[in-house]
Amino acid sequence: MAINCLRGVPKTPFLSKPLIPPSLLFSRRASLVVTAAAMSYDKELAAAKKAAFKLMFLLYADFGGLSVLGFFSLTGKVQKALLQSDVHSKSDKSPVTVADYGSQAVVSFILEKELPTESFSLVAEEDSGDLRKESGQETLQRITKLVNDTLVNEEAYAIATLSTEDVLRAIDNGKSEGGSSGRHWVLDPIDGTKGFLRGDQYAIALALLNEGKVVLGVLACPNLPLASIGSNNQHSFESSHDKVGCLFFAKVDEGTYMQSLDGSSPVKVHVSAIENPEEASFFESFEAAHSLHDLSSSIAKKLGVKAPPVRIDSQAKYGALSRGDGDIYLRFPHKGYREKIWDHAAGSIVVTEAGGVVTDAAGKPLDFSKGKYLDLDTGIIVTNQKLMPSLLKAVRASIEEKVSSL
Ligand SMILES: Nc1ncnc2c1ncn2[C@@H]1O[C@H](COP(=O)(O)O)[C@@H](OP(=O)(O)O)[C@H]1O
Ligand SMILES: [Mg+2]
Ligand SMILES: [Mg+2]
Ligand SMILES: [Mg+2]
């Protein structure tokens, strides 16, 4: 497997925390240390992974013929074809499917059930507006069936079949505005809906914010091969016979891990160690409407990157970068577009905990504390620590050139 990784599972953080020195006892700092030590986010991570794995099994394309999962393989394929045909248009003309709504309802429902003692705040992409209209009733029925089918084996939740009203409520849990205080879950139920519809890459992206900082992220990429997707490997993932389906997870200060669907142990992953830009490769959106491909080309050229861009959808780019499949991710939306936190929260912690750096085009860290939008300068750039200084220089020079040519 061409992945830069060490085998192993995360250590229990409690064991590695230092004892509090007596001089700090009863001080404000001591209480902060205690609070930090108490925040292992183990329960939260387990709940987030449970929801993401459930959706992966439901949505993934193929699993390389593993006999033990043969049943899932067949139903998954049929299920996915049905879900891909069920597409609607939102008010901003972007697509939304029964899978987007269903995934949001399932994640919202599982988090609430798994973490009953915590106050629950969720900032998520979809809302129930269109589903409450007369024209949305048929779609709502299909979403409700999908959610019930997904939760059917959850006897521990002691739930009867969910009604359409239960499903609408679960979707609307995602209406929180987020912000700089308290805890907020951030969810993109299907990131890269266009990739999902094409049979290419997409992700279920779930993160937890605490006091405005991302402290945990889970990125499920049902179509991402376990093997590296390097620059010479731009195939249709649907037709690949390699094993597909990767789940990345990260907690603050504990590194990033990748897990497959076959029940094997998580492996620790790292971003690439490449220092020479000539050997580097870069990722960008498949959709030219989502990122200025000409600006990325100009940056790559200035930097000396020789390989052609690897164009893939969704936060699978962050996942692939976190395991060293590529070295740089460039994202420059067209003028006027405002980035949303759910498009970057999970991906950014997956990359930073794997040793990478995520900033805006001015080199500032992304600020997730301002509500549902990211307030940033021009674009988002991601790479390893070694390449960042020269990348930032190339970004500045290319942007200046672009501005002076207008
Ligand atoms: N004009 C635009 N510019 C930049 N991003 C856009 C965009 N329109 C939509 N997007 C965002 O791009 C995301 C997909 O990113 P990528 O291009 O990396 O696949 C979409 O997520 P959803 O598919 O969850 O709606 C959407 O939030
Ligand atoms: Mg969308
Ligand atoms: Mg998205
Ligand atoms: Mg989405």
From TrEMBL:
Positions that bind Mg(2+): E125, D188, I190, D191, D343
GO molecular function: 3'(2'),5'-bisphosphate nucleotidase activity; inositol-1,4-bisphosphate 1-phosphatase activity; metal ion binding
Pathway it works in: Signal transduction; phosphatidylinositol signaling pathway
Pfam families documented for this protein: Inositol_P (PF00459)
Keyword DNA repair applies: no
Signal peptide feature range: none
Cofactor or coenzyme needed: Mg(2+)
InterPro entries: DPNP, Inositol_monoP_metal-BS, Inositol_monoP_superfamily, Inositol_monophosphatase-like, Inositol_monophosphatase_CS
One GO term (biological process): phosphatidylinositol phosphate biosynthetic process
Catalyzed reaction equations: 3'-phosphoadenylyl sulfate + H2O = adenosine 5'-phosphosulfate + phosphate; 1D-myo-inositol 1,4-bisphosphate + H2O = 1D-myo-inositol 4-phosphate + phosphate; adenosine 3',5'-bisphosphate + H2O = AMP + phosphate; adenosine 2',5'-bisphosphate + H2O = AMP + phosphate
Family to which this protein belongs: Belongs to the inositol monophosphatase superfamily.
NCBIfam families attached to this UniProt entry: bisphos_HAL2 (TIGR01330)
Name assigned to this protein: 3(2),5-bisphosphate nucleotidase HAL
